[in-house]
Specification:
The structure holds 2 protein chains of 2 kinds.
Chain A lengths: L2 H25 L5 E5 L2 E10 L2 E2 L5 E2 L1 E10 L8 E8 L4 E2 L9 H4 L4 H8 L3 E11 L7 E14 L2 E10 L4 E11 L6 E6 H5 L3 E10 L2 E4 L2 E4 L1 E3 L9 E13 L4 E12 L1
Chain B lengths: L2 H31 L3 H22 L3 H6 L3 H24 L7 H26 L3 H21 L17
Classes of the chains: A alpha+beta, B mainly alpha.
């Protein structure tokens, strides 16, 4: 093999090894990252799509997040009063020209009706699982499908989530307000669950795919975009992708952070 | 009692009793030394807390340094973090472990040793200007850190658990 070919081959091997290593981190383990606080285990997993992003400007992407809470001994979960989802500082949220959907249009609607009313504002889909603990009854699990819509509530940018369960048939509308601040998770989505769900459902698990591409005045936009923080000579970058924080009844707060990698385009 | 038998008993029992007197307090002491899981966690968290904060300070801005390819600066920060990690692990190793958790902790310390090795190797690669090799090791460091966390999940460590955000 000539010197040039050998160099090219070794560069290719190095690149392959690097990409394999990055995908190892990107995918994480099957269950995501876990932390235990006493009897409570908090889990968060997630990823980006596509993993290949521009290094010098934000590129369109979709974020997948899933996680929740469970007890070690299988006992009833504590009531979560507030959920916060932190997104990395380099994430850009664009709503220019994107229609909005008000919570009022979604209340008392079935999934198909919610979609019919606000499809153009749809920015994500997912699912939610909760334990329902009614007085003098055995707790049972209910599963809801989620639709996330772009919204403005009280003149603040927000995401309105329509949660529809089949058994028992029920609908809840959750409002996640955007909070912008400094730090690693500069953008936070915050929802007050106690007001939306009432005292009986105990939040357990969620899955959410957030991201939407749309056009406005002939130009393409993406609801979510980000760049890959890779050095000029590097092929990969690592960053804290998300942090979920749950406030429990009584005021205790627990959180979990996940780190993922991206490839530089 | 027959005098001969009495002498035999005396010859056998006195040294045995003497040995028991020597051994029993030692056994009692070792039982007293073996901590419960909660005591062990509290003791280790006391060791890890200041070291965690020191790591955060030492590594501040490292991701920006790597992104801007200031590899010598990043290497110096990783070297500091590596020294802090090694010193912390050494202190943690010296703490007596709860007997019921020996196997779990052995696995965990195995992962911590790997973390220590990865930090040393990342430092070396950054010093040599090998960015891609350093990134490859960094991804292994993160993955291994998560495995370490799973090994001791029921312990509920806060400061002694791995968190990538501490590393810049």
């Amino acid at each position: 093999m000539s010197g040039g070919a050998a160099r090219a081959a070794s560069a290719l091997i190095l690149l392959a090894v690097t990409l394999t290593s990055v995908s190892l981190v990107v995918t994480g383990t099957a269950s995501g990252e876990l932390t235990q606080h006493g009897n409570l285990i908090i889990r968060l997993d997630g990823g980006l799509s596509p993993r290949k992003l521009p290094r010098d400007r934000p590129g369109p992407l979709q974020v997948h997040l899933e996680g929740g809470l469970r007890t070690v001994d299988g006992s009833l979960l504590p009531r979560v009063t507030r959920i916060e989802l932190g997104l990395p500082g380099q994430a850009v949220i664009t709503t220019q020209g994107l229609p909005t959907c008000s919570p009022g249009r979604l209340r008392f609607t079935r999934r198909a009706e919610a979609l019919a009313a606000c499809r153009s504002a749809l920015v994500g889909r997912g699912s939610l699982e909760a334990s329902v603990a009614l007085p003098r009854q055995q707790p049972f699990t209910t599963r809801a499908s989620l639709l996330a819509f772009n919204a403005r509530v009280h003149r603040h940018r927000a995401i309105v989530v329509h949660a529809a369960a089949a058994n028992p048939p029920s609908v809840a509308v959750l409002v996640f307000f955007f909070h912008h601040g400094r730090g690693r998770f500069g953008t936070r989505l915050v929802a007050d669950l106690s007001a939306a769900l009432g005292p009986w459902p105990r939040f357990a698990q969620f899955k959410l795919n957030l991201g939407h591409r749309y056009s406005f005045h002939g130009r393409g936009y993406s609801y979510l975009s980000a760049s890959c923080p890779a050095p000029p000579r590097g092929t990969a970058g690592f960053f804290s992708l998300a942090r979920s924080t749950y406030t429990l009844v009584g005021g205790g707060r627990i959180s979990q952070t996940i780190t993922r990698g991206c490839r530089a385009a | 009692m027959d005098a001969g038998i009495g002498r035999v008993w005396t010859r056998r029992l006195v040294p045995a009793a003497f040995c028991a007197l020597l051994v029993l307090p030692a056994l009692g002491a070792s039982a007293a030394q073996a901590p419960t899981r909660d005591e062990y966690v509290a003791q280790l968290e006391r060791i890890c807390k200041p070291e965690t904060e020191a790591t955060r300070r030492a590594m501040k801005g490292t991701s920006a340094d790597v992104k801007a390819e200031r590899l010598a600066v990043a290497a110096a920060k990783f070297a500091k973090a590596s020294a802090i990690f090694a010193a912390t692990t050494k202190k943690m190793t010296a703490v007596p472990r709860p007997p019921a958790d020996t196997a779990k902790l052995k696995t965990w310390f195995g992962y911590l040793k790997n973390q220590e090795k990865y930090l040393r190797e990342i430092t070396a690669q950054l010093r040599s200007g090998h960015l891609i090799k350093a990134q490859r090791l960094l991804s292994r460091f993160i993955h291994n850190g998560h495995l370490a966390n799973y090994a001791v999940l029921p312990f509920g460590f806060k400061y002694c658990s791995f968190e990538f955000s501490r590393y810049g």
